[in-house]
Amino acid sequence: MGTDPFIVGRRGPIVNRFRDIVMGLCAKFPGKVRFFQYNTGGVGEIIESIEGSARKKMIRKALRVPIPLMAAIQRGDFHGSNVYETGPFGTKQISSVEGFDLSPYDPRKFYDQNIIDAFVADIIKGRKSFTAEVAEEGLDAEIIRWAEKSYDIPGVRTEPKLWQVSMDDPASRVGRAAEPVSSKLPPLKSYFGNGNGLQRPPRSIAGRW
């Protein structure tokens, strides 16, 4: 959402201002503004809970992304030599970088598709909940619409929308949290927090892909 814990004040206006800066740059320098998100974590970690205990056991450590590979990806983005494809979140993810083999970091080498789908759905649910929190602090309705659109990923089952945009006062263009939207779909199967089996890592899995 573009927030920074070191900036004092309500998060909504901070994100709104960040949007204004970015859109201003895009208008001033058309076709020259690009953004990339780099995750410096890893992939493949599995943590299991110990039955009858609050403790957890490491089954498999994450395969970390080495600094030389991360540097090569950044150089490739700068020179325009990297190849991208559509990823599980509906956005573009890197599929090829000069001088390195990316296949060891493919999540499908570590998890079956059902677990990957559960990870994606869980991450989207968390992002929706966080966006709803920021919306309560004066987030612009336009940004809320962008966020909600990004959560609608073809082929991915997620929970119903956690909030909607209030357009009662068009002049304000401010989003307001709402009651959850009803759904006839059965509950999503959860791989997390049930006290047994596969557990989500302590930190967001988004930082480990």
Walk me through the structure:
- The chain is an alpha+beta fold and 209 residues long.
- The chain has one domain (11-62, 111-208).
- The chain has helices at 11-28, 67-79, 113-135, 141-151, and strands at residues 42-43, 46-49, 56-60, 63-64, 83-86, 92-96, 198-199.
- The strands form 3 sheets. It has a 3-stranded antiparallel sheet with strand order 3-2-7, with no helix packed on it. Strands 1-4 form a two-stranded antiparallel sheet. A two-stranded antiparallel ribbon has the order 5-6.
- Strand 5 and strand 6 form a beta hairpin.
- It is globular, with a radius of gyration of 19 Å.
Write the layout of secondary structure elements.
Blueprint: H1 11-28, E1 42-43, E2 46-49, E3 56-60, E4 63-64, H2 67-79, E5 83-86, E6 92-96, H3 113-135, H4 141-151, E7 198-199
Antiparallel strand pairs: 1-4, 2-3, 2-7, 5-6
Helix pairs in contact: 3-4
